[in-house]
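Students often ask why inverse folding is considered easier than folding. One informal answer: many sequences map to the same fold, so there is more than one right answer. In these notes we will look at a single instance of the problem. The structure comes first.
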């Protein structure tokens, strides 16, 4: 016989257990929902904090803080002169794709008008990322590219790193017309009859993907050298692009035999090239146009501070900082800049000026050096201004008259494993006549101190090498230490 009270009690137990399970399930759902809300709110808050923090130090009136950009100059003859900034790798607050800026800015380069609280920047155009990806009328954003200008101030950019997922680089050539600021992609071919390559091997002529290469312009041609390939190998080739005929010509392949015989510089990246209209060539005994190379590196253990000249008419290299100068009284300097890469260089008069750069373990230089192209000697320049820009790298330097203009870059630190300290967006001008630094637009980036009232460091003749593996010029090197210490990363 069925025990009715027992059955009812059992049903009640099942009911209570079912209700408990429902309560626990409902509680789990509610807690999970609340957790998701809190997490979402936190992430949103952090994002808003990042945006608001960015707006606190940079707004629509200023370009994003960046490094490895392209820089040009306009109105350098008639005036007023303006700097043009394009792309580069940014930290935030930029219309960017994979950390790369897709923007273009003009800056009023008037050294007689220091900062007065108003922006001297003007943004030329901006597209959203989706529209940009659909466009073939503008170059793909990139960093570690090169930019040179012709006599009409048209800007040419070539190759660079677009930070693609597959790690590939690009080898495209673009022209930005002066005045209209319109982009046009060029399609150069290989000049088989003039090339060092075989006519049947023209495909190699266009395999020019690279980053951290160097370039200079002279008489209708863009000269491009070295850099890093997508396979991480270093390049040592010297090419010339005829911008009128749109033809690439391989002038010198920098073979291992030439390097071993010290007839060509070793392969490298992060170096600079500048054009010298008239330079004495020891091998020919004549003056000719030369493309002058300075510094760069192979890897973290091998940096350079050598100076080489490439003579396009002879298609040969000649080392300058150990070669005798044409004047009888000249001598090779007993001091030279410390090896470095990702510095900047420019020619004013008969001198090549170099500023900034990076040496291993996060040391960014704030020094200024001048290489006398006639005497072939280095001189460390001591600025006369009380305030100087902080050491930095991945920068560009543009000569306008006797002034040198510098934008942004990245800070550095001496200490291994230092955390990021951020990029810069300040503008400085250095007068080669008065040796004075002028801050034209202060940096609006977080966690930086881009200027400091302090006496600039001038290396002593008796500074000793620090024991690292470096390539010397003749005589002792100036030790790193001119830069004010600030933490940074190297891209």
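Output (designed amino acids):
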């Amino acid at each position: 016989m069925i025990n009715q009270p027992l059955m009812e009690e059992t049903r009640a137990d099942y009911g209570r257990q079912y209700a408990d399970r429902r309560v626990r399930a409902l509680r789990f759902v509610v807690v999970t929902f609340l957790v998701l809300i809190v997490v979402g709110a936190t992430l949103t808050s952090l994002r808003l904090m990042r945006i608001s923090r960015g707006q606190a130090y940079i707004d629509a009136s200023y370009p994003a803080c960046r490094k490895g950009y392209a820089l040009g100059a306009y109105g350098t003859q008639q005036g007023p002169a303006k700097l043009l900034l394009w792309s580069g790798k940014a930290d935030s607050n930029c219309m960017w794709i994979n950390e790369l800026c897709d923007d273009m800015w003009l800056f009023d380069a008037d050294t007689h008008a220091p900062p007065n609280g108003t922006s001297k920047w003007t943004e030329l155009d901006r597209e959203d990322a989706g529209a940009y990806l659909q466009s073939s009328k503008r170059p793909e954003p990139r960093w570690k590219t090169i930019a040179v200008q012709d006599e009409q101030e048209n800007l040419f950019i070539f190759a660079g790193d677009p930070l693609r997922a597959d790690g590939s680089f690009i080898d495209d050539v673009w022209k930005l017309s002066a005045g209209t600021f319109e982009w046009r992609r060029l399609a150069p071919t290989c000049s088989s009859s003039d090339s060092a390559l075989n006519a049947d091997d023209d495909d190699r002529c266009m395999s020019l993907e690279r980053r951290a290469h160097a370039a200079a312009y002279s008489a209708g041609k863009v000269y491009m050298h070295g850099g890093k390939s997508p396979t991480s190998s270093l390049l040592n080739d010297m090419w010339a692009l005829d911008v009128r005929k749109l033809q690439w010509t391989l002038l010198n392949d920098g073979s291992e035999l030439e390097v071993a015989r010290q007839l060509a510089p070793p392969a490298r990246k992060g170096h600079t090239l500048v054009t010298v209209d008239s330079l004495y060539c020891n091998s020919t005994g004549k003056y000719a146009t030369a493309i002058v190379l300075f510094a760069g590196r192979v890897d973290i253990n091998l940096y350079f501070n050598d100076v080489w000249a490439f003579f396009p008419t002879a298609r040969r290299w000649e080392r300058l900082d150990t070669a005798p100068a044409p004047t009888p009284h000249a001598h090779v300097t007993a001091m030279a800049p410390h090896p470095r890469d990702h510095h900047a260089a420019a020619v004013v008069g008969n001198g090549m000026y170099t500023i900034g750069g990076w040496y291993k373990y996060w040391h960014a230089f704030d020094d200024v050096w001048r290489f006398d192209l006639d005497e072939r000697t280095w001189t460390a320049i001591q600025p006369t201004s009380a305030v100087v820009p902080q050491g930095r790298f991945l920068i560009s330097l543009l000569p306008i008259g006797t002034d040198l203009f510098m934008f942004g870059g990245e800070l550095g630190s001496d200490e291994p494993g230092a955390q990021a300290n951020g990029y810069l967006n300040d503008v400085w001008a250095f007068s080669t006549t008065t040796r004075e630094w002028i801050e034209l637009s202060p940096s609006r980036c977080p966690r930086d101190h881009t200027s400091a009232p302090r006496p600039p460091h001038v290396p002593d003749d008796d500074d000793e090498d620090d024991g690292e593996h470096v390539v010397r010029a003749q005589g002792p090197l100036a030790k790193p230490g001119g830069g004010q210490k600030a933490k940074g990363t190297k891209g």
